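From the pipeline queue, job 12 of 40. The input is one protein chain; the requested action is below.

Action: predict structure.
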Amino acid sequence: MKNEITTVLPKWILIVSGLFALLEFMVSLSLYIAPESVIESVDYSAKGVNDLIHMWAARQLALGVIFAFATFKKSASMLTLSYLFLLIIFLGDLYLGISKDELPLIISALVMCGISGVMLFMLNRKNN
């Protein structure tokens, strides 16, 4: 017999996490198929740009798989790590937006940092 404490996660946390998984899959697919729809200000003829875009797409795909798996397993600890990773990514985007003085990137990064932070808070509250 396993001696483990299971946490029942509210449905809304699982729904939001499933939507994040779907979002990450869609971003990854967009980056593979039509990167110009995601990134407009890039010279795609420059050496190495396609490699960077494919690495970014692979990162988004991996994050989508992790979110989907954690949501399917209904694992609070896996979802906590997923949202922590997402928060770190969007803090990087926030830094990039500030350094490039791009208001849309700053706003979207702040919103996503807020959502990630709230989800981390709610998951932590559910674990305790």
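Job complete. Residues 49-73 form the longest helix (25 residues).
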